[in-house]
Amino acid sequence: MDSADFFQQVAFLRYLTSQTEEDRWDLAAVTGLRVGGELLNRITGRDKVEAYKKACILNIVQFLQQNPRASQAQINAEVQKNVLVFAAQVKALETAPLF
Fold first, then answer.
1. pLDDT at 97 over 80
2. What are phi and psi of 38, to 5 degrees?
3. Domain assignment of residue 79, given as a range
4. What per-residue string of b and e applies to 33-71 under the rule 16 or more CB within 10 Å gives b?
5. E strands of 12-92, at which residues?
6. 31 is a domain residue
7. Does residue 37 belong to any structural domain of this protein?
8. Domain contains 97
9. How many structural domains is the chain composed of?
10. Which residues lie closer than 8 Å to 16 by C-beta, 6 or more apart?
């Protein structure tokens, strides 16, 4: 459970046990922030970009581990290949549906 889940669950529990208007507003505010954050993430593709970046770096690291004697030209070619894949994946997000 991440922090946002935790705060939403706390607000929900408070509302369930008290049923006060203040706790209902707190729950609505926390839930609204979560929905807004998810909408922003879907619009920007932030999570996907981070996943693509991580995969790019891991692919380069894996190449270096498997090819410890690779020349600088080979390393440069591998980095360039992976960066181009990353760029293509990010570019594809521009036309991907939001939902």
1. no
2. -65, -40
3. 46-92
4. eeeeeeeeeeeebeebeeebeeebeebbeebeeeeeeee
5. none
6. yes
7. yes
8. no
9. 2
10. none
Half-sphere exposure of 89 (CA within 13 A, CB side): 18
Instruction: Give the model confidence (pLDDT) of 33-51 as tens digits.
Output: 999 988 888 888 888 999 9
* Per-residue model confidence (pLDDT) at position 98: 63
Are 66 and 79 part of one and the same domain? Answer: yes
**pLDDT per residue over 51-95, tens digit each?**
999 999 999 999 999 999 999 999 999 999 999 999 999 999 888
Residues 31 and 7 reside in one and the same domain: yes
The Cα diameter of the chain in Å comes to 68
Show the tokens assigned to 64: 């270096």
CB 48 within 8 A of CB 56: no
Global confidence as pTM: 0.64
How far apart CA 61 and CA 88 sit, in angstroms, is: 20
Residues 8, 37, single domain; the answer is yes
- Asked whether the beta carbons of 27 and 14 are under 8 A apart, the reply is yes
Looking up tokens 């894949």, which residue turns up? 85
